[in-house]
Amino acid sequence: MSDHSRSQSAFAEARRYIPGGVNSPVRAFRGVGGEPFFVERAEGAHIWDVDGNELIDYVGTWGPAILGHAPKAVRDAIMEAAAKGVSFGIPNPYEVEMARTICEWIPSVEKVRMVNSGTEATMSCIRLARGFTGRDLIVKFEGCYHGHVDSLLVKAGSGALTHGQPDSAGVPGAFAELTITLPFNDAAALKTLFQAQGSKIAAVIVEPVPANAGLYLPREGYLETLRQLCSEYGTVLIFDEVMTGFRLARGGYQERCGIKPDLTALGKVIGGGLPVGAFGGRADIMNQLSPEGPVYQAGTLSGNPLAMAAGLAQLREMERVNGWAKLEELGAEFEAGTRAALKKAGRNYVFQRIGSMFCLYFTEGEVWNLADAMRSDKAGFARYFHACLDAGVYFAPSQFEAGFLSLAHTHADLEKTAEIVTGALTA
Ligand code: PMP
């Protein structure tokens, strides 16, 4: 049994000063039981906790670490930028370079604004869509998580799901009433809703590949139907690509599926590990933002030079090494290892993967929406999670989170992981 005494005392102290001992709920391990470990340092695909235990990491700081932890290109860029000043609140060249890169890479983005988190990006998209259309209703999908925005904490995924609190206290009923939720992948339900209320709907926000209730894919034609209905009724279609942007392709999932949303929310990979988000899209909609237009949106630290430099360095490095093709290869290798482990252990569980994102559901059959995902054996997952962690592999501490591969994962890492996964599934 490895030593966890330092993590345990750090957590005891943290709980005295921080609610639940954490600055974001899912970190508290409530979905799997036990206590979180505290990190000492992280490099490449590995993490060392404060007790000296080494782990192979498949969380990657929840998505941003696409090159692995602390990549040299990103560290150098931060140091270089910091030497010139850490924040200005004055326009700076980094911001323009970032905006130009996003507009060139993401097919639907003509103009973009930087913010400090994914939550800010989706929140701003919603306000902008309402301002642009003059309508109030918004539509989201069960199990999709778009950050802790009041109007979007309705039947939300991620931590909100793990903790059994899909509807947060503190969200006025009047806000929630303006949010309509639908099951994902149900085209008939979409059509019925639009026929009844389409002309009152400001926006539909969707994770085109939902990855906050595990991971499931859109059925063929589903996103096309969504695009078509939004166009027909003058509703703003928002793709939340905070997780999938720059990860599933250079231009996000929209490049792969060939569908152009009106607005896109971005985060995670774009910041290289620093606190960054962005939202962008059609110029006629983006031009409604202050100071050009009447929709207010602002930020003291938005476009921060360190964050821009870190993000740009990460994006350029991905492009330089053609990271997306390499991640696909690593993903396929990881998938083969996991499927072999399932076979050896005699389990028929559902393994889903797209590129470098994956989820092992502790259930059989197919998973296409939240209801399917909820069939999972959460206690079984918790035992599996802890067995992997004890053996040196860190997966996300919840059945309802996706896993991430990075360019820093080696064949040796994947081989060792497959062994550990086999052992954990067999036990
Ligand atoms: N949208 C999606 C799809 C996300 O996965 C997340 C966070 N996991 C967010 C929005 C919110 O981002 P942040 O935590 O940076 O506010």
TrEMBL record:
Record's keyword terms, sorted: Cytoplasm, Isomerase, Porphyrin biosynthesis, Pyridoxal phosphate
UniProt KW Heme keyword: no
Entry-linked InterPro entries: 4pyrrol_synth_GluAld_NH2Trfase, Aminotrans_3, Aminotrans_3_PPA_site, PyrdxlP-dep_Trfase, PyrdxlP-dep_Trfase_major, PyrdxlP-dep_Trfase_small
Pathway where this protein functions: Porphyrin-containing compound metabolism; protoporphyrin-IX biosynthesis; 5-aminolevulinate from L-glutamyl-tRNA(Glu): step 2/2
Reactions the enzyme catalyzes: (S)-4-amino-5-oxopentanoate = 5-aminolevulinate
Subcellular location: Cytoplasm
GO cellular component, as recorded: cytoplasm
UniProt record, GO biological process: protoporphyrinogen IX biosynthetic process
PANTHER family (UniProt xref): GLUTAMATE-1-SEMIALDEHYDE 2,1-AMINOMUTASE (PTHR43713), GLUTAMATE-1-SEMIALDEHYDE 2,1-AMINOMUTASE 1, CHLOROPLASTIC-RELATED (PTHR43713:SF3)
HAMAP family assigned to the protein according to its UniProt record, in alphabetical order: HemL_aminotrans_3
Quaternary structure (record): Homodimer.
Name of this chain's protein: Glutamate-1-semialdehyde 2,1-aminomutase
Organism: Chthoniobacter flavus Ellin428
Gene: hemL
